[in-house]
Specification:
The complex is a heterodimer of chains A (about 325) and B (about 525). Helix content of chain A is about 75%, strand content about 0%. Chain A is mainly α and about 325 residues long. In chain A, helix 5 packs across helix 9 and helix 9 crosses helix 11 (about 225-235). Chain B folds into four domains: about 1-45; about 55-60 and about 210-285 and about 495-525, D-Maltodextrin-Binding Protein, domain 2 (3-Layer(aba) Sandwich); about 85-195, Dipeptide-binding Protein, domain 1, CATH 3.90.76.10; about 290-495, Dipeptide-binding Protein, domain 3 (Roll). Chain B starts with a helix and ends with a strand. The chains are: A mainly alpha (about 325), B alpha+beta (about 525). At the A-B interface, helix 2, helix 3, helix 7 and helix 14 of A face helix 7 and helix 13 of B.
Chain lengths: ~325, ~525
């Protein structure tokens, strides 16, 4: 077994172990939330009889350890259980929500990733001149503003004042792709603004690092244009850190969109999670937590694997 | 000029020219804005409801964990949903009385113990089945059974027996007289379902003006007009779309950008600003809902009457209405009852008086600070209200310490558990219900631990009293008892604040019950454009 393959296998095993530990943490964490699910479902206007009836039915009186192993067994066989609040199958409900979240993340990524890399390349090309400063300045300020505020600002000016895009990003099966894209224009814009800076700065730094190498000087002396050198010679050799940061941001686009989804009333995982946290619906919170953790761990694993494989020293051992 | 104005009015009412355009042209003819507004409203009503179109409602309160079972309805969205497909026996009328829905009429025995409801003949559920007294009986059974989870269970205690002697008669016999029984039947949980919903409580089959076309709980629900509904005077739009928007800013923005026609619960702080937009009208109405500071009068130091009086006099009610509700509300008087209730008597208004507060505080001999628990969950702006109260108390020399509690678990860990906290009540349809729910000695939700034998006797006596003048007096006496001896400090009654676009018409002022015309706005209003 080559060192590259061994590293990859090690990395995957580590990822699985991590996921298992996270499952314990998630289960334990939801147990210590204050409040009572029956009270949360029935609201302030619940009678004590109704509360007792509901608690019995929900089975929240069993010991935690039994519940953990039942839950884990279920998850491993693809059964996420049923929601306490409405008795629906969680896997089924999450399915469409996850699809929506991935849809939003996908389009945000399609715009943000190439844009960030392009801006990074441009920043290197015009290093320390005004385009570089402008790009850094703008992207760093959008990453510094809390995303809900960017959301509200865009909502007010683009949605209400200009009327270019809907302020409520409702998507449903009856819409075609064009309508859906129009509907998610604002959240995509917010997400793009939020993740742009990180990827752009990393691209810029990684390439600048490579730009010091002697072979770049050679390319320069050959008479290649500056942008060609960056794109063809410097960028491929700085791919590893860039992939890492891109993956981190993709993971963020999936699991970090809770606030954006709530602000734009987008029917994704984030909003689903928030709804159920406020109702103490533990099975749903656990399932969402686990899915988010799995997405995060998987994407990071992919990033690691790609950087291992993109390292020629590991691919071609002597 | 009159002809021109009439022409404009008709065009504006029919939506051929915009509201803004109408005002502009009317102003050109020398009509003031206020007069123009009145004129337009009249013309819109005169033009009559228009059929068809889609009404979109941006509504607060729903979540993806909500159930479609009316028994579990507990928030604004669920209350709106059940109104679309279902109907109760009777419904609150604009004049404070009741309108028949599934029941055409009702009557009682002279002692108010036996109530007979006559079911409207020949009305059908949306599945085609005829509505019979058996369905009504099964519905009430489902909501009042021992193992029910229904939110209406509290209302339905004390039923001795129920029967359906024939298909159009439903008879209820009570353990004790209750003159208010028909009002209880208007509760939004009690939608009549085929076989009481025992077979499938979440089927959304009822006799209402709309039928459910698609449901994505906590996201979006679509209703289509029920072509067989018995009352052609309501249900104008052919489609009603409920879009759940819990974020206040997003909900208001959806109204402003024209994505929805109406929203509920506009935040009071921004209502004035939102209403300045030319195509939006803010509709506020006073309701029985109130924001409260509640103390357990059986727990020290609140068992000392002087402490309670000190705190009551230290409450600046006008300031609360102005700052916490931005004026969208009315001052409270330390009773849970206001003018929105039938048989209301105005009591002498208690006013902010730091001197009297200081006097009672000194007399009580207390020196330790009073601990007040609060959270944003208690009511919007509750922590600010607590801080204002702390300041006015300080002016009277009463030390108040504020403890901010987490929103999560506030209703199970703080409210009705801790001796002094902020909270809210949504109110009840009748005084009897409000007092029974929260001020009767034996009530589960006696969140002020107010236990007064004389009060309990009066409450039961009033329930059996069919003479309105006598009942009114009894309720006034009970109100005074709560006001002077209770643990309730009620600074304000909050208004329901809705936002309506001028693409919909038919709004009526002064409807009883909840927001959005007691949730009948999507059903009884229509699209003008």
């Amino acid at each position: 077994m080559g060192p590259a393959l061994r590293l990859v296998v090690q990395r995957i095993a580590l990822g699985l172990l991590l996921l298992f530990l996270v499952s314990i943490l998630i289960f334990w964490g939801t147990l210590i939330l204050p409040g009572d699910v029956a009270q949360a479902i029935l609201g302030q206007s619940a009678t004590p009889e109704a509360l007792a009836n509901l608690r019995d039915e929900l089975g929240v009186n069993d010991p935690p350890l039994t519940r953990y192993f039942e839950w884990l067994g279920g998850v491993l066989s693809g059964d996420l259980g049923t929601a306490l609040t409405n008795g629906k199958d969680i896997a089924e409900s999450i399915g469409s929500r996850l699809e929506n979240t991935l849809f939003l993340a996908f389009w945000a990524a399609v715009i943000a990733v190439p844009l960030a890399i392009l801006l990074g390349l441009l920043a290197v090309r015009y290093r320390d001149r005004w385009p570089d400063k402008l790009i850094s300045g703008v992207t760093l300020s959008t990453i510094s503003i809390p995303e809900f505020l960017i959301g509200y600002v865009l909502m007010y000016f683009v949605g209400v004042k200009l009327g270019w895009a809907p302020t409520v990003s409702m998507i449903h099966d009856g819409m075609n792709l064009g309508q859906k894209l129009h509907s998610i224009a604002l959240p995509v814009a917010v997400l793009t603004l939020v993740v742009l800076a990180h990827m752009m700065r990393m691209t810029r730094a990684a390439i600048l690092n490579v730009m010091q190498s002697p072979y770049i000087e050679t390319a320069d002396l050959k008479g290649l244009t500056k942008f060609n050198i960056i794109w063809k010679h410097a960028f491929p050799n700085s791919i590893s850190p860039v992939v890492n940061v891109v993956m981190l941001n993709l993971a963020y686009l999936v699991v970090g969109v809770v606030v954006v989804e709530v602000v734009f009333t987008y029917p994704g995982m984030g909003q689903y999670l928030v709804d159920h946290v406020s109702k103490r619906d533990l099975p749903v919170v656990q399932a969402c937590g686990l899915i988010f953790a799995a997405v995060y761990i998987t994407l990071n694993m992919i990033a690691d694997v790609v950087s291992i494989l993109s390292n020629p020293k590991l691919r071609h051992p002597k | 000029m009159k002809d021109q104005l009439d022409y404009l009015k008709v065009n504006a009412a029919l939506g051929r020219i915009s509201r803004r355009e109408f005002f502009g042209r009317a102003a050109a003819l020398g009509v003031t804005a206020v007069a123009a507004n009145t004129m337009l409203a009249g013309a819109v009503r005169a033009a009559g409801p228009q059929k068809g179109g889609t009404i979109k409602v941006g509504i607060q309160g729903g979540g993806s964990g909500d159930s479609l079972d009316p028994a579990l309805a507990a928030n604004a969205t669920m209350s709106q949903i059940v109104r679309m497909w279902g109907e109760p026996l009777v419904e609150l009328a604009d004049d404070g009385g009741l309108n028949g829905k599934v029941a055409e009429s009702y009557s009682s025995s002279p002692d108010a113990k036996v109530w007979t409801f006559n079911i409207r003949p020949d009305i059908t559920f949306s599945n085609g089945k005829t509505v019979t007294a058996d369905d009504v009986l099964a519905t009430i059974e489902r909501h009042s059974g021992e193992d029910t989870k229904s939110g209406a269970l509290g209302l339905l205690r004390g039923i001795k027996s129920m029967s359906a002697p024939d298909a159009s008669t439903f008879v209820l016999e009570l353990d004790a007289p209750n003159a208010d029984l028909p009002y209880l039947m208007s509760d939004y949980h009690l939608m009549i379902q085929p076989n009481g919903g025992k077979d499938d409580p979440t089927a959304c089959i009822g006799s209402g003006p709309y039928t459910l076309a698609s449901a994505d709980m906590g996201v979006r629900l679509v209703f289509e007009k029920n072509p067989n509904h018995w009352d052609s005077a309501i249900g104008h739009a052919s489609t009603v779309e409920l879009i759940i928007i819990n974020d206040d800013t997003a909900r208001v923005a959806a109204l402003q950008s024209g994505q929805v026609h109406m929203v509920n619960r506009v935040p009071p702080r921004t209502a004035g600003l939102v209403g300045r937009a030319p195509n939006i009208t803010i509709r506020s109405k006073s309701g029985p809902g109130h924001y409260v500071f509640i103390a357990h009068v059986d727990t020290a130091p609140f068992d000392n009457q002087d402490v309670m009086m000190a705190l009551k006099y230290a409450m600046n009610r006008e300031e609360m209405v102005e700052k916490i509700l931005s004026g969208y509300g009315t001052v409270g008087n330390d009773t849970p009852i206001n003018a929105s209730y039938p048989l209301y008597t105005e009591l002498e208004q208690r006013a902010y008086d730091p001197d009297k507060a200081a006097f009672h505080w000194k007399k009580s001999g207390q020196t330790d600070p009073v601990l007040l628990r609060t959270s944003d969950n208690a009511f919007p702006g509750a922590p600010d209200a607590a801080a204002l109260f702390q300041q006015t108390c300080e002016a009277a020399g009463i030390p108040v310490e504020i403890k901010r509690e987490p929103n999560d678990g506030y209703w199970s860990e703080v409210w009705n558990v801790q001796p002094f906290c902020t909270s809210y009540w949504g109110g009840r349809p009748t005084q009897d219900q409000m007092f029974t729910t929260a001020y009767l000695s034996t009530a589960d939700w006696n969140d002020t631990r107010f236990k007064n034998e004389q009060f309990d006797q009066l409450l039961l006596a009033a329930r059996a009293e069919l003479d309105e003048a006598k009942r009114t007096q009894m309720y006034a006496d009970m109100g005074s008892m709560v006001r002077d001896e209770g643990g309730l400090i009620c600074p304000m009654f909050n208004d329901f604040i809705d936002g309506m676009s001028d693409e919909v018409a038919g709004f009526r002022e002064g409807t009883p019950g909840f927001e959005l015309m007691n949730f009948y706005a999507p059903i009884e209003m229509w699209v003008t454009a």
